[in-house]
Design goal:
Helices cover about 25% and strands about 30% of the residues. By secondary structure, the chain is α+β, with helices and mostly antiparallel strands. The longest helix has 13 residues.
Length: about 220
């Protein structure tokens, strides 16, 4: 008898620019019953490949705290491949280890529960075993799905690929804040994304910054187009 669970990845896009990933187990949002029910942004759990099993196994924050600070509580489980299955095991809530799905130190410290002395709490979530075939197909499908991605988010994704050090946050339907290194300091500005092809727009903005054009001039003279 097959006792494998079925994973379904659903992206809640009811708030444009702020989508959340729901991880359904046999059609039920089981992990949310822990009380830590804040889904990850797709960019943090899908685009990073966080759900793909690795060696050594990584502990992934599948959900975070709904208080507004993702890492103050979470559902963090080890994701690992065992034969022809994928398992999520040892559910814990770890405070201070995560800002998103991956540990703050990424691959350097794959399991904060072991590597750091952090406040932790075991969670009443059982071992979850999936068919590797079904699991991998569903993760691949969700990673390829960009229907959640607005024009603004697409531009931000291309900008991040070109400037990984930039920090961006959507502030409106077409606006975002940008923190960028400015010598030994950091600059902060808010920009409105024009219409156009996202990859082209991202390259155009990076070119303006690389030419030393100040954000104020970019805005006032509408140079980004």
């Amino acid at each position: 008898m097959n006792d494998h669970h079925v994973l379904t990845i659903r992206i809640d896009s009811s708030k444009p620019n702020y989508p959340k990933v729901r991880l359904l187990i046999d059609g039920s949002d089981l992990l949310a019953t822990t009380g830590n029910d804040e889904g990850n942004d797709p960019a943090d759990i899908l685009d990073t490949g966080a759900l793909i099993p690795t060696k050594p196994s990584r502990r992934i924050a599948l959900y975070g705290c709904g208080c507004g600070i993702f890492g103050c509580a979470n559902v963090a489980m080890l994701v690992h491949r065992v034969g022809d299955t994928v398992q999520w095991s040892d559910a814990q809530s770890l405070t201070g280890a995560y800002e998103a799905a991956l540990p703050n130190d990424g691959d350097e410290e794959p399991d904060p529960a072991v590597d750091y002395d952090l406040p932790s709490q075991p969670l009443a979530v059982p071992l979850l075993t999936f068919s590797a075939s079904q699991y991998n197909d569903e993760v691949a499908r969700a990673m390829a799905d960009r229907t959640w991605e607005t024009h603004l988010r697409a531009v931000m994704r291309h900008l991040l690929a070109l400037k990984p050090e930039w920090m961006m946050h959507a502030t409106g339907p077409a606006t975002f804040t940008l923190d960028y290194p400015q010598g030994r300091r950091w600059g902060l500005t808010e920009l409105e994304v024009p219409s156009g092809e996202p990859a082209y727009l991202a390259q155009a903005l990076v070119d303006l910054f690389d030419q030393g054009v100040r954000p104020g001039q970019i805005i006032q003279e509408a140079l980004w187009q």
